[in-house]
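Priority: low. Protein: ornithine carbamoyltransferase. Input follows.
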Amino acid sequence: MSEDTISEGFSTQRPKPPHFITTADYTAEQLLDLVDRAIEFKVESKYLKNRTERPLTGKTMALLFSKRSTRTRVATETATAYLGGHAMFLGGQDIQLGVNESLLDTSRVVSSMVDGIMARVGGHEEIEMLAQESAVPIINALSDKYHPTQILADLMTIHEFYHHRNNNVTDRYTAHTQHPSQTLKGLKVAWVGDANNILQEILVAFPKCGISVAAAAPAGYKCDDDVVAIAQADAAKSGATVTFTTNPEEAVKDADIIVTDTWVSMGQEEEKAKRLQEFAGYQVTMDLAKRGGAKPDWVFMHCLPRKPEEVDDEVFYSDRSLVFPEAENRKWTIMAIIDALLVRGGI
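Result:
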Protein backbone atom coordinates (compact mmCIF):
# COMPACT_ATOMS: atom_id res chain seq x y z
CA MET A 1 0.00 0.00 0.00
CA SER A 2 1.41 3.37 -0.97
CA GLU A 3 1.84 6.31 1.39
CA ASP A 4 -0.57 8.31 -0.78
CA THR A 5 -3.28 5.73 -0.19
CA ILE A 6 -2.69 5.78 3.57
CA SER A 7 -2.72 9.57 3.78
CA GLU A 8 -5.96 9.69 1.78
CA GLY A 9 -7.63 7.48 4.36
CA PHE A 10 -6.97 9.99 7.12
CA SER A 11 -7.71 13.14 5.12
CA THR A 12 -10.30 15.49 6.61
CA GLN A 13 -10.93 17.03 3.17
CA ARG A 14 -13.19 14.37 1.68
CA PRO A 15 -15.78 15.20 -0.95
CA LYS A 16 -19.37 15.26 0.31
CA PRO A 17 -21.25 12.04 -0.56
CA PRO A 18 -24.55 12.19 -2.47
CA HIS A 19 -27.73 11.92 -0.42
CA PHE A 20 -31.46 11.34 -1.02
CA ILE A 21 -33.26 13.61 1.45
CA THR A 22 -36.26 14.77 -0.57
CA THR A 23 -37.47 14.60 -4.15
CA ALA A 24 -37.46 18.41 -4.10
CA ASP A 25 -33.69 18.20 -4.68
CA TYR A 26 -34.07 16.54 -8.09
CA THR A 27 -35.54 17.30 -11.48
CA ALA A 28 -38.48 15.43 -12.95
CA GLU A 29 -36.09 13.76 -15.37
CA GLN A 30 -33.88 12.49 -12.55
CA LEU A 31 -36.83 11.17 -10.56
CA LEU A 32 -38.44 9.42 -13.51
CA ASP A 33 -35.13 7.90 -14.55
CA LEU A 34 -34.91 6.50 -11.01
CA VAL A 35 -38.39 5.04 -11.42
CA ASP A 36 -37.36 3.57 -14.76
CA ARG A 37 -34.32 1.96 -13.11
CA ALA A 38 -36.56 0.57 -10.35
CA ILE A 39 -38.76 -1.04 -12.98
CA GLU A 40 -35.68 -2.60 -14.59
CA PHE A 41 -34.79 -4.16 -11.24
CA LYS A 42 -38.34 -5.44 -10.80
CA VAL A 43 -38.36 -7.09 -14.22
CA GLU A 44 -34.89 -8.54 -13.74
CA SER A 45 -35.61 -9.99 -10.29
CA LYS A 46 -39.31 -10.85 -10.33
CA TYR A 47 -39.89 -11.88 -13.93
CA LEU A 48 -36.58 -12.78 -15.58
CA LYS A 49 -34.79 -14.03 -12.44
CA ASN A 50 -31.43 -13.74 -14.13
CA ARG A 51 -29.29 -11.42 -12.02
CA THR A 52 -25.72 -12.49 -11.34
CA GLU A 53 -24.08 -9.15 -10.53
CA ARG A 54 -23.75 -8.25 -6.84
CA PRO A 55 -22.19 -4.76 -6.76
CA LEU A 56 -22.58 -4.29 -2.98
CA THR A 57 -20.67 -7.44 -2.01
CA GLY A 58 -18.73 -6.66 1.16
CA LYS A 59 -20.64 -3.43 1.81
CA THR A 60 -23.02 -2.58 4.66
CA MET A 61 -26.16 -0.45 4.73
CA ALA A 62 -27.07 0.75 8.23
CA LEU A 63 -30.77 1.20 9.02
CA LEU A 64 -31.02 3.84 11.76
CA PHE A 65 -34.70 3.75 12.66
CA SER A 66 -35.99 5.77 15.59
CA LYS A 67 -39.54 4.74 14.63
CA ARG A 68 -41.12 1.37 13.87
CA SER A 69 -41.35 0.29 10.27
CA THR A 70 -42.73 -2.55 8.17
CA ARG A 71 -42.51 -1.67 4.47
CA THR A 72 -39.40 0.51 4.62
CA ARG A 73 -37.44 -1.98 6.71
CA VAL A 74 -38.38 -5.04 4.65
CA ALA A 75 -37.85 -3.16 1.39
CA THR A 76 -34.41 -1.87 2.39
CA GLU A 77 -33.14 -5.14 3.83
CA THR A 78 -34.24 -7.19 0.81
CA ALA A 79 -33.02 -4.58 -1.68
CA THR A 80 -29.59 -4.45 -0.04
CA ALA A 81 -29.35 -8.24 0.01
CA TYR A 82 -30.34 -8.46 -3.65
CA LEU A 83 -27.49 -6.11 -4.54
CA GLY A 84 -25.10 -8.28 -2.53
CA GLY A 85 -24.77 -6.10 0.55
CA HIS A 86 -25.52 -6.54 4.23
CA ALA A 87 -28.28 -4.56 5.97
CA MET A 88 -27.65 -3.76 9.64
CA PHE A 89 -30.83 -2.77 11.47
CA LEU A 90 -30.31 -0.35 14.37
CA GLY A 91 -33.66 0.30 16.01
CA GLY A 92 -34.71 2.39 18.96
CA GLN A 93 -33.45 -0.21 21.44
CA ASP A 94 -30.12 -0.52 19.66
CA ILE A 95 -29.25 3.09 18.99
CA GLN A 96 -31.12 6.29 19.82
CA LEU A 97 -30.49 9.26 17.59
CA GLY A 98 -29.57 12.24 19.72
CA VAL A 99 -30.02 10.39 23.03
CA ASN A 100 -27.00 9.61 25.27
CA GLU A 101 -24.80 10.45 22.29
CA SER A 102 -25.21 13.53 20.15
CA LEU A 103 -26.63 13.24 16.67
CA LEU A 104 -23.42 14.70 15.31
CA ASP A 105 -21.30 12.04 17.04
CA THR A 106 -23.66 9.25 15.98
CA SER A 107 -23.50 10.31 12.35
CA ARG A 108 -19.70 10.49 12.30
CA VAL A 109 -19.18 7.21 14.14
CA VAL A 110 -21.71 5.07 12.26
CA SER A 111 -20.81 6.49 8.86
CA SER A 112 -17.14 5.66 9.45
CA MET A 113 -18.00 1.95 9.62
CA VAL A 114 -20.68 1.49 6.93
CA ASP A 115 -21.17 2.34 3.27
CA GLY A 116 -24.61 3.93 3.43
CA ILE A 117 -27.28 4.89 5.95
CA MET A 118 -31.06 4.61 5.66
CA ALA A 119 -32.46 6.79 8.45
CA ARG A 120 -36.00 7.07 9.82
CA VAL A 121 -36.06 10.01 12.20
CA GLY A 122 -38.38 12.44 13.95
CA GLY A 123 -37.64 16.06 13.11
CA HIS A 124 -36.42 16.88 9.61
CA GLU A 125 -33.48 18.71 11.16
CA GLU A 126 -32.22 15.30 12.30
CA ILE A 127 -31.91 13.92 8.77
CA GLU A 128 -30.28 17.17 7.68
CA MET A 129 -27.73 16.87 10.48
CA LEU A 130 -26.98 13.27 9.54
CA ALA A 131 -26.44 14.27 5.93
CA GLN A 132 -24.25 17.18 6.91
CA GLU A 133 -21.94 15.09 9.08
CA SER A 134 -22.03 11.67 7.39
CA ALA A 135 -19.10 10.37 5.36
CA VAL A 136 -21.44 8.10 3.37
CA PRO A 137 -24.74 8.56 1.52
CA ILE A 138 -27.84 9.18 3.64
CA ILE A 139 -31.30 8.12 2.48
CA ASN A 140 -34.30 9.69 4.20
CA ALA A 141 -36.57 6.81 5.19
CA LEU A 142 -39.01 9.29 6.78
CA SER A 143 -38.88 12.59 8.64
CA ASP A 144 -41.68 14.77 9.91
CA LYS A 145 -41.40 16.93 6.79
CA TYR A 146 -40.74 14.52 3.91
CA HIS A 147 -41.02 10.85 2.89
CA PRO A 148 -39.23 10.61 -0.48
CA THR A 149 -38.91 6.85 -0.90
CA GLN A 150 -42.68 6.47 -0.53
CA ILE A 151 -43.48 9.02 -3.20
CA LEU A 152 -40.97 7.53 -5.62
CA ALA A 153 -42.82 4.21 -5.20
CA ASP A 154 -46.10 6.04 -5.81
CA LEU A 155 -44.80 7.43 -9.10
CA MET A 156 -43.76 3.92 -10.13
CA THR A 157 -47.17 2.50 -9.22
CA ILE A 158 -49.02 5.20 -11.13
CA HIS A 159 -46.85 4.62 -14.20
CA GLU A 160 -47.39 0.86 -14.10
CA PHE A 161 -51.15 1.20 -13.76
CA TYR A 162 -51.65 3.73 -16.53
CA HIS A 163 -49.17 2.06 -18.87
CA HIS A 164 -51.05 -1.22 -18.66
CA ARG A 165 -54.48 0.41 -18.81
CA ASN A 166 -53.61 2.66 -21.76
CA ASN A 167 -52.14 -0.25 -23.70
CA ASN A 168 -54.89 -2.73 -22.77
CA VAL A 169 -52.34 -5.13 -21.25
CA THR A 170 -53.80 -7.51 -18.68
CA ASP A 171 -51.89 -10.76 -19.02
CA ARG A 172 -48.25 -9.73 -18.62
CA TYR A 173 -45.93 -7.04 -17.25
CA THR A 174 -44.80 -4.51 -19.86
CA ALA A 175 -44.25 -1.29 -17.89
CA HIS A 176 -40.53 -1.48 -18.68
CA THR A 177 -41.27 -0.90 -22.38
CA GLN A 178 -42.37 2.71 -21.79
CA HIS A 179 -40.64 5.50 -19.88
CA PRO A 180 -42.64 7.05 -16.99
CA SER A 181 -42.32 10.48 -18.59
CA GLN A 182 -44.85 9.29 -21.16
CA THR A 183 -47.63 8.22 -18.78
CA LEU A 184 -47.84 10.71 -15.90
CA LYS A 185 -48.32 14.16 -17.38
CA GLY A 186 -51.91 15.41 -17.27
CA LEU A 187 -53.14 13.21 -14.43
CA LYS A 188 -54.88 14.68 -11.38
CA VAL A 189 -54.29 13.44 -7.84
CA ALA A 190 -56.73 14.32 -5.07
CA TRP A 191 -55.42 14.24 -1.52
CA VAL A 192 -58.01 13.84 1.25
CA GLY A 193 -56.51 13.91 4.74
CA ASP A 194 -53.83 15.37 6.96
CA ALA A 195 -51.33 17.98 5.77
CA ASN A 196 -48.44 15.68 6.63
CA ASN A 197 -45.08 14.53 5.28
CA ILE A 198 -46.69 12.36 2.59
CA LEU A 199 -48.67 15.28 1.18
CA GLN A 200 -45.62 17.52 1.38
CA GLU A 201 -43.51 15.03 -0.57
CA ILE A 202 -46.31 14.69 -3.13
CA LEU A 203 -46.29 18.46 -3.54
CA VAL A 204 -42.55 18.66 -4.25
CA ALA A 205 -42.61 15.66 -6.62
CA PHE A 206 -45.86 15.38 -8.57
CA PRO A 207 -46.29 18.89 -10.05
CA LYS A 208 -42.81 18.89 -11.59
CA CYS A 209 -43.77 15.63 -13.32
CA GLY A 210 -46.89 17.26 -14.76
CA ILE A 211 -49.33 15.76 -12.25
CA SER A 212 -51.88 18.18 -10.80
CA VAL A 213 -52.61 18.03 -7.07
CA ALA A 214 -55.79 19.10 -5.26
CA ALA A 215 -55.42 18.74 -1.50
CA ALA A 216 -58.23 18.76 1.03
CA ALA A 217 -57.37 19.06 4.72
CA PRO A 218 -59.38 20.40 7.66
CA ALA A 219 -59.05 24.04 8.65
CA GLY A 220 -55.84 24.57 10.60
CA TYR A 221 -53.97 21.75 8.86
CA LYS A 222 -51.57 23.42 6.44
CA CYS A 223 -48.38 22.51 4.61
CA ASP A 224 -45.13 24.38 5.15
CA ASP A 225 -44.86 27.61 3.17
CA ASP A 226 -41.64 26.58 1.44
CA VAL A 227 -43.23 23.31 0.29
CA VAL A 228 -46.22 25.15 -1.17
CA ALA A 229 -43.91 27.61 -2.93
CA ILE A 230 -41.92 24.76 -4.53
CA ALA A 231 -45.12 23.04 -5.68
CA GLN A 232 -46.55 26.19 -7.21
CA ALA A 233 -43.31 27.04 -9.00
CA ASP A 234 -43.00 23.50 -10.39
CA ALA A 235 -46.63 23.51 -11.51
CA ALA A 236 -46.18 26.79 -13.34
CA LYS A 237 -43.32 25.26 -15.34
CA SER A 238 -44.97 21.92 -16.11
CA GLY A 239 -48.51 23.10 -16.77
CA ALA A 240 -49.93 21.25 -13.75
CA THR A 241 -52.12 22.86 -11.10
CA VAL A 242 -51.92 22.91 -7.29
CA THR A 243 -54.98 23.76 -5.22
CA PHE A 244 -55.93 23.60 -1.53
CA THR A 245 -59.36 23.31 0.05
CA THR A 246 -61.10 22.16 3.22
CA ASN A 247 -63.79 20.40 1.15
CA PRO A 248 -63.06 16.76 0.17
CA GLU A 249 -65.75 16.81 -2.55
CA GLU A 250 -64.07 19.80 -4.17
CA ALA A 251 -60.67 18.08 -4.12
CA VAL A 252 -61.84 14.85 -5.75
CA LYS A 253 -63.63 16.54 -8.67
CA ASP A 254 -62.23 15.13 -11.94
CA ALA A 255 -59.57 13.20 -10.00
CA ASP A 256 -57.83 10.23 -11.61
CA ILE A 257 -56.34 9.12 -8.30
CA ILE A 258 -57.56 9.64 -4.73
CA VAL A 259 -54.93 9.39 -2.00
CA THR A 260 -55.10 9.48 1.77
CA ASP A 261 -52.96 8.51 4.77
CA THR A 262 -53.20 7.92 8.49
CA TRP A 263 -54.82 10.73 10.47
CA VAL A 264 -53.76 9.44 13.89
CA SER A 265 -50.07 8.59 13.70
CA MET A 266 -47.87 6.91 16.27
CA GLY A 267 -47.70 9.09 19.36
CA GLN A 268 -50.97 10.87 18.51
CA GLU A 269 -53.40 8.41 20.13
CA GLU A 270 -54.36 10.93 22.81
CA GLU A 271 -55.55 13.24 20.02
CA LYS A 272 -57.68 10.59 18.34
CA ALA A 273 -61.09 11.82 19.53
CA LYS A 274 -60.25 15.38 18.54
CA ARG A 275 -58.95 14.35 15.13
CA LEU A 276 -61.90 12.11 14.38
CA GLN A 277 -64.14 15.11 14.92
CA GLU A 278 -61.99 17.43 12.80
CA PHE A 279 -61.71 14.87 9.98
CA ALA A 280 -65.43 14.07 9.88
CA GLY A 281 -66.38 13.67 6.21
CA TYR A 282 -62.83 12.86 5.12
CA GLN A 283 -63.18 9.08 4.90
CA VAL A 284 -62.60 7.96 1.31
CA THR A 285 -65.67 6.09 0.11
CA MET A 286 -67.35 5.32 -3.19
CA ASP A 287 -70.03 7.81 -2.19
CA LEU A 288 -67.48 10.60 -1.61
CA ALA A 289 -65.98 10.01 -5.05
CA LYS A 290 -69.42 10.02 -6.66
CA ARG A 291 -70.62 13.15 -4.82
CA GLY A 292 -67.44 15.01 -5.66
CA GLY A 293 -67.39 13.96 -9.30
CA ALA A 294 -64.17 11.97 -9.51
CA LYS A 295 -63.53 10.40 -12.89
CA PRO A 296 -65.51 7.18 -13.38
CA ASP A 297 -62.32 5.09 -13.50
CA TRP A 298 -60.58 6.70 -10.50
CA VAL A 299 -58.16 4.60 -8.45
CA PHE A 300 -57.09 4.69 -4.81
CA MET A 301 -53.70 4.82 -3.08
CA HIS A 302 -52.57 4.74 0.56
CA CYS A 303 -49.02 4.34 1.90
CA LEU A 304 -50.13 2.11 4.84
CA PRO A 305 -50.67 1.23 7.61
CA ARG A 306 -54.36 1.93 7.08
CA LYS A 307 -57.13 2.58 9.57
CA PRO A 308 -60.82 2.25 8.59
CA GLU A 309 -61.52 5.88 9.54
CA GLU A 310 -59.43 6.96 6.55
CA VAL A 311 -60.90 4.67 3.89
CA ASP A 312 -63.64 2.07 4.10
CA ASP A 313 -63.24 -1.60 3.16
CA GLU A 314 -65.30 -1.21 0.00
CA VAL A 315 -62.65 1.09 -1.49
CA PHE A 316 -59.56 -0.33 0.20
CA TYR A 317 -60.14 -3.91 -0.99
CA SER A 318 -61.73 -3.02 -4.32
CA ASP A 319 -60.32 -3.36 -7.83
CA ARG A 320 -59.73 0.39 -7.69
CA SER A 321 -57.16 -0.01 -4.92
CA LEU A 322 -53.46 0.07 -5.80
CA VAL A 323 -52.25 -0.10 -2.20
CA PHE A 324 -50.55 -3.51 -2.35
CA PRO A 325 -48.61 -2.96 -5.60
CA GLU A 326 -47.75 0.45 -4.14
CA ALA A 327 -46.32 -1.23 -1.02
CA GLU A 328 -44.30 -3.75 -3.05
CA ASN A 329 -42.81 -1.00 -5.17
CA ARG A 330 -41.10 0.42 -2.09
CA LYS A 331 -38.56 -2.39 -2.56
CA TRP A 332 -37.77 -1.62 -6.18
CA THR A 333 -37.52 2.14 -5.81
CA ILE A 334 -35.35 1.86 -2.69
CA MET A 335 -33.18 -0.57 -4.62
CA ALA A 336 -32.82 1.99 -7.40
CA ILE A 337 -31.83 4.69 -4.89
CA ILE A 338 -29.25 2.46 -3.20
CA ASP A 339 -27.86 1.48 -6.59
CA ALA A 340 -27.65 5.15 -7.65
CA LEU A 341 -25.91 6.36 -4.49
CA LEU A 342 -23.67 3.43 -3.55
CA VAL A 343 -22.90 1.91 -6.97
CA ARG A 344 -23.26 4.67 -9.55
CA GLY A 345 -22.07 7.53 -7.36
CA GLY A 346 -25.11 9.79 -7.61
CA ILE A 347 -28.59 10.35 -8.97
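The CA atoms of residues 47 and 158 lie 20 Å apart. The longest strand covers residues 60-65.
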